[in-house]
Design a protein that fits this description.
The protein has 19 helices and 5 strands. It has 431 residues and is mainly alpha-helical. It has 2 domains: 305 residues, no CATH class; 97 residues, no CATH class. It has a 5-stranded mixed β-sheet. It is globular, with a radius of gyration of 24 Å.
Length: 431
């Protein structure tokens, strides 16, 4: 016989750690504290720079991540926190309306995972994407085609991976209602499609060229198990596959195309951990409908141990600095004054450009052609390295304009390179 969490039992009220709102409250406090403690990293600052220049599209992603920042006027970490919890409660309401037995545990199950914790700390395109996705799940379970179409359009304006939801929406809602939802979404998304056609197919063309090929199945599998937690990933997918009731059958139709796509791609392509993230939030509904209290407790226990580890690392400053992005962010803050004394600073990656712009340090963008392009290439085209530039960032290419690369150690510990030109100045690197 299955056991289910309940607010009380024959022996009196349960321990505090077994109460859904108590555990959720602990997770919220931990997430909020991490958002205050962890400094803004390069990718966040990159998206903040987008917010200062509202457009119909950007090099890497659709524009919703920038529009949110620009229209709300709220600091990015506060915005990530608010959007995360709005998304969680939309999905929780979906579970309540679908009749999930232990729906009160949905917020805790979602938040007590590394994926859920990062969801409310870092402001990236995944934050508005997840909000849209939770609205899609809620509207599909409720059979609301118009709301589903609006949510799908919102997701397409947030991140390109939202297009993977289209087959599942058509399958779940049926040809008529699904067609209405998808048609409405495409009409609302048309301006970005036009922008993409006028800009070399971006961001689709960029995302299609990012893949590394090889046998990556074990690495990708372990990454997803770590992000979602073994209980949510294994038992959630198992009960999704069994589809023993109406909820399971609906979620199966909605998620099956996404799971097949990422599952097949993960065998030979190295996936970034957040790419298949759409799979996991709806599976929290399966954990509160079909799985015993013991398994739910194990899922929450895994999350709490992970959260405790993150809080411990963030509390210990030297340990926090071992994380590459954090160490880089703090070093730029410490070196801002030293760098600002150089009149010809040049950043060759978007990471350095975004971080120095945020510190109000004047820096030119000079990307070598061997390095990956970014939004800065659309804003500052053909802006190559010049004689006399002080290069910030890893200078690992040879330049015709430089007769030598002389590293200089700043007092704050950062190494920069001063480009001394012996011959004619050129603006492109040597291949």
């Amino acid at each position: 016989m299955k056991q289910h969490f309940s607010p009380s039992g024959p022996g009196g009220p349960p321990p505090l750690w077994r109460h859904p709102w108590a555990v959720y409250g602990f997770c919220v406090i931990a997430q909020f504290w991490l958002g205050l403690r962890v400094p803004l990293v390069a990718d966040e600052l990159y998206y903040i720079a987008w917010g200062h220049h509202p457009e119909l599209g950007y090099f890497d992603h659709p524009p919703m991540v920038a529009w949110f920042l620009n229209l709300s006027g709220v600091p990015s970490r506060w915005l990530a926190f608010a959007v995360c919890h709005a998304s969680i409660w939309i999905l929780t309401d979906a579970g309540r309306l679908a009749g999930c037995i232990a729906w009160r545990w949905i917020p805790t199950i979602l938040l007590a995972t590394p994926l859920g914790m990062a969801w409310g700390v870092f402001w990236t395109p995944d934050a508005p994407l997840m909000l849209a996705w939770c609205l899609v799940v809620r509207s599909v379970l409720g059979g609301h085609a118009i709301v589903c179409g609006l949510a799908l359009a919102f997701g397409l304006w947030s991140k390109s991976t939202m297009c993977l939801c289209v087959p599942g929406i058509l399958w779940s809602l049926g040809p008529r209602s699904g067609g209405i939802a998808v048609g409405l979404a495409l009409c609302l998304y048309a301006p970005h499609i036009a922008w993409s056609i006028a800009h070399e197919g971006l961001p689709w063309s960029y995302q299609a060229d990012r893949h590394a090929f090889g046998f990556y199945a074990p690495v990708n599998l372990l990454t997803q198990l770590a992000l979602a937690g073994p209980a949510l990933a294994v038992f959630g997918l198992w009960h999704l596959w069994r589809r023993t009731d109406t909820l399971g059958a609906t979620l199966y139709r909605l998620l099956c195309p996404i799971v097949i796509f990422w599952g097949g791609l993960s065998v030979w392509v190295r996936l970034e951990g957040n790419w298949p993230a759409l799979i996991w939030p709806p599976l929290a509904l399966m954990l509160t409908q079909h799985i015993s209290a013991g398994i739910r407790r194990s899922a929450i226990g895994f999350g709490l141990v992970t959260i405790g580890t993150l809080v411990a690392v963030a509390s210990h400053r030297p340990a926090l600095k071992t994380l590459p992005d954090i160490r880089q962010a703090e070093m730029y803050v410490q070196c801002a004054d030293a760098l600002s004394r150089h009149s010809q600073l040049a950043a060759i990656r978007y990471q350095e450009k975004a971080q120095l712009d945020a510190l109000h340090v004047k820096v030119e963008y000079a990307r070598p052609i061997q390095r990956r392009r970014s939004q800065y290439d659309l804003w500052f085209p053909n802006n190559g390295l010049s004689c006399g530039d002080v290069v910030v960032g890893p200078l690992d290419v040879e330049w015709e304009a430089c007769d030598a690369r002389r590293p200089m150690e700043l007092s704050c510990g950062m190494t920069i390179h001063h480009c001394h030109c012996a011959q004619k100045k050129t603006s492109e690197p040597k291949l």
